[in-house]
Amino acid sequence: MKLILRILINAFAIWFAAMLLDGFNFTGSFINLLVVAIVFGLVNGLIRPIVKLLTLPLTVITLGLFALVINTLMLILTVWLSDALSLTGGLFTNFFIAFAAAIIISIVSTVLSWFLPD
């Protein structure tokens, strides 16, 4: 049950970021949004730990700020994979829009996760 709620939270966070930012569009259906949220969870669960380990020295040097860039790259990878699977019309106009979307998605997901039961 908790996994389903996390997928729904990620889907809402992605949708919310697409609504807030003009340079990030999502034109898929609700089912496509759920599949994109699953892809986002898989990317964050499988690829992100490896990238974080490989970039640990850079993250330490920047006092953790490089973690924001890692979040952005994971979001870009999710959109790229989703487009490759023909799930979404999601596009970023530039890196800074992706950066802002990653921050919004992180904040919304964190706040909504506080309400999940343990």
Observed structural traits:
mainly alpha, single chain, globular, about 120 residues, two-stranded antiparallel sheet
Can you offer a commentary on this structure?
This protein has one domain (2-112). The protein has a two-stranded antiparallel ribbon. The protein has helices at residues 2-20, 30-54, 56-61, 66-84, 95-113, and strands spanning 24-25, 91-92. The mean pLDDT is 90. The longest helix is centred in the middle third of the chain and has 25 residues, at 30-54. Helix 1 packs across helix 2 (30-54) and helix 2 crosses helix 4. It is globular. The protein has 118 residues and is mostly helical.
Summarize the structure.
With 118 residues, this protein is mostly helical.
